[in-house]
Design goal:
By secondary structure, this protein is of the alpha/beta class. Helices cover 38% and strands 27% of the residues. It folds into 4 domains: 1-119 and 129-164 and 310-357, ATPase, nucleotide binding domain (Nucleotidyltransferase, domain 5), CATH 3.30.420; 173-300, 2-Layer Sandwich (Nucleotidyltransferase, domain 5); 359-427; 431-521, Gyrase A, domain 2 (2-Layer Sandwich). It has helices spanning 51-64, 93-107, 141-153, 164-171, 173-176, 211-214, 245-264, 286-293, 323-333, 352-355, 359-427, 431-440, 468-478, 515-525, and strands at residues 5-11, 15-24, 27-37, 71-76, 82-89, 115-121, 131-140, 157-163, 180-186, 191-197, 200-207, 271-277, 298-300, 308-309, 446-453, 458-465, 484-497, 500-511. A hairpin with a 4-residue loop joins strand 15 (446-453) and strand 16. Helix 1 (51-64) crosses helix 3 and helix 4 crosses helix 9 (323-333). The longest helix has 69 residues, at 359-427. The chain starts with a strand and ends in an 8-residue tail after the last helix.
Length: 533
């Protein structure tokens, strides 16, 4: 989505450059331009060492340009991201993401699940071989998050994160739309070489030589000039020991890149001219030097010279060094881009690594989540029903226990009533009849010492006998009495009295009153059925 204003922040090893643009009916206008030295110890070769130090540098650059905003696009130094050219079969965009993710894992470009990547096609797919060449660019999650944190500490939100060389190509886009054009972006410590054919990226590579290397004149000791330090037509350091060796090496790498590209590319896409993005205040006469040594027209890219200021009538273009920052700001305000765009800012679940899963896998995951949610809801419902049944069962158990207790109490009460009735019945017998019956059936050799009625209608007889046989005879005699039933031996113990062996016994029998006596007792216990008339 295009914004009305855009802020681009190019973070280099030596300088931080920022620019703010505004899209109006009159075209694109510059609202602010600023720069500040990169704080020492803030970054090293790309990775952020101290986000707070880097944030201080960004704030200073924003302050110099009087730039305020909410979000910004950040350009990475050349060595901050890793890149690789791969060739894959032609396929749909969704399938391509998963294939690229697999290739990255195969080539170990990034630690698994610890980075983000994006890619741009190199030219149109080959219809004959049905193959597509891709430039894959990746960065570790730690690095991307460190730039995000630095921008947050500076008061801005990260909108996108891309290499500064691609941003420079966006700034130079008008010069790349026709024919074959080579673009060399000279950073502080490294350079990027790319070839475009009719606006389409065809070739890209990095060169480990930057402006900090080229700005030193090793012959005269002067800084910032190349004229006179190198003789024309010499392409290597060994050919001219008095020349700038890094400049010769850069020239040599550019020539090698052009030769390689021309061997691989079709004739229709051959390079016709060279565009240079460089800080001309630091490195002078580079375009002239390359023009003298390469059989190509060479031009410096200075797109800010074609823009006017929105607030300052005396605005002067800051120079070609701001081309990457301009391209970053253009990314926010342009509806469409004719040059490649990548975004390395996505490091969470929304990253390219996460989005590279094939569509069927996403559907399967979604269906699995839906199924798991349904199962979870069903389990919760079942658990709730079980809890309700458990509560009801507990209440039923409590009620059953209460009923059982009442039933036991009723049964015990009935038993106590029956026992009371028996006791009343037994105790309704005269003791004289009981003693008479006991004495009548007491055999020889058995003496009665104690007689008592226990619970119910049990009569306990205690005494001594000459032998256990005599006690057995007593029990047999008691069975013949109409008052006694079921005699049982409760205890028997041998003892000696005056040298005579004896047996101490206890026998219990059931008292059964005669039928006539039971009827009389029941009649005496029955309540009166009527009153006086």
């Amino acid at each position: 989505m295009a914004h009305a204003t855009g802020i681009g922040v190019e973070i280099g090893e030596d300088q931080i450059r920022v620019i703010k643009l505004r899209r109006t009916a009159r075209g694109i206008l510059v609202q602010g331009v600023g720069s500040a030295p990169t704080p020492a110890g803030a970054i090293s070769g790309g990775p952020v060492l101290d986000p707070r130090l880097l944030a201080d540098g960004i704030r200073k650059a924003l302050g110099k340009g009087n730039i305020r905003g909410v979000c910004a696009v950040v350009g990475l130094p050349g060595r901050a991201a890793t890149s690789r050219v791969i060739e894959v079969p032609t396929m749909s965009e969704e399938e391509l993401k998963s294939v690229v993710a697999g290739e990255m894992e195969h080539h170990r470009m990034l630690p698994m699940d610890q980075g983000t990547f994006d890619y741009v096609p190199l030219g149109e797919p080959d219809d004959t071989s049905r193959r597509t060449r891709l430039l894959v660019i990746g960065a570790t999650k730690k690095m991307a998050d460190s730039y995000r944190e630095s921008l947050r500490l500076a008061g801005l939100r990260l909108s996108a994160l891309e290499p500064a060389s691609l941003a420079a190509a966006r700034a130079a886009s008008p010069a790349l739309q026709t024919g074959g054009v080579a673009l060399i972006t000279v950073g502080a410590c490294s350079s990027d070489f790319a070839v475009f054919a009719s606006g389409s990226l065809r070739y890209s590579r990095g060169i480990d030589i930057g402006a900090l290397d080229l700005s030193e004149d090793k012959t005269s000791g002067e800084t910032g000039t190349l004229s006179g330090s190198v003789r024309p037509a010499l392409l290597s350091v060994a050919d001219d020991e008095s020349g700038n060796g890094d400049l010769q090496a850069l020239l040599h790498e550019i020539q090698r890149s052009l030769d390689f590209y021309h061997r691989e590319a079709p004739v229709s896409a051959r390079v016709e001219r060279l565009v240079v993005v460089v800080d001309t205040q630091r490195v002078k006469d580079l375009a002239q030097f390359l023009r003298d040594h390469l059989d190509l027209p060479v031009a410096i890219c200075d797109p800010l010279s074609e823009l006017a200021s929105d607030t300052d009538p005396s605005y002067e273009p800051p120079g070609p060094a701001y081309a990457p920052a301009l391209g970053l700001a253009l990314r926010m305000i342009q509806e469409t881009s004719t040059t490649p765009c990548v975004d390395l800012s996505l490091t969470g679940r929304e990253s390219q690594l996460a989005r590279s899963a094939p569509r069927w896998l996403l559907y399967a995951i979604g269906f699995s989540l839906f199924l798991a949610t349904g199962v979870l809801i069903a389990v919760l419902q079942i658990n709730r029903s079980l809890c309700q049944h458990e509560v009801q069962l507990g209440e039923a158990r409590v009620e059953l226990a209460r009923v059982s207790e009442k039933e036991q109490a009723r049964t015990a009460a009935a038993q106590r009533v029956q026992e009371a009735q028996r006791i009343v019945q037994v105790r309704g017998l005269p003791w004289s009849d009981i003693l008479f019956q006991v004495s009548s059936f007491m055999p020889q050799g058995v003496w009665l010492g104690d007689l008592e009625v226990e619970s119910g209608n049990v009569l306990a007889l205690q005494g001594s006998a000459l032998s256990a046989t005599s006690v057995a005879t007593l029990m047999d005699s008691l069975t013949r009495s109409p008052l006694f039933q079921g005699p049982q031996m409760s205890s028997i113990e041998e003892q000696t009295l005056g040298g005579q062996p004896l047996v101490k016994y206890q026998v219990k029998v059931l008292l059964t009153p005669p039928v006539q006596q039971q009827a009389a007792t029941a009649a005496s216990l029955a309540p009166a059925s009527g009153g006086a008339r």
